[in-house]
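Input chain follows. Return structure tokens only.
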Amino acid sequence: MITRILPLLLLLSIVFSVSYGSSAKIIKLSQKGEKITRIFCDIKKLPKAEGTISDLMKKISDSKACRKLSKAKLEAVAYFVSNGAMKYSKKQMHVPHDAKCPVCGMFVYKYPKWAAMIEVDGKKHYFDGVKDMMKFYIFDVDFPYDRTKISKMEVTDFYTLDAIPANDAWYVYDSLFYGPMGRELISFVDKPSAEEFSRDNSGKEILRFKDITPKKVMALDGIDFQ
């Protein structure tokens, strides 16, 4: 039985605290944000991509990385900081507009580049990052359900936005590129893509699904799991 981590997750949530149309809207906002960023902002001064969109809007404003922006433009920049450059993929994971991550409580549709999913006994659970998906999968005391009834686990390829089987993906562990919940496991469809990203963003390791241990997952939150 895995040690309880829910009290730690509640603390972390304070710290960090669908349809085609929804995905298309977020992608368009991110694309708009990219254009605004290149014209009005100093990219080097922008904050890391952790936190909610509201959190990022405040961090961007406080950072003085951009000229004075309207609320709409600031929101677009926040989506770009969170998701990076994106194009819609027909193989993309379709996240319901009302789906919340069962680990951190954030709305997942806002973060299509980070979306992950576990289907258990016909019910789909969505996550705003592989790290939270792995917490839901590993820690059976805090998240009790029958693991033998898992029928599907999917993650998002960082470059293409395609949904890919979690067991087949390659994961860059703890790079300089942050997700909505901070330090992450970033998923890729193949090893060369993972290696390229890892080189460019100082990833510490490239892992397969079977290599993702409780200790590695919790270390991303700065917790020495024993």
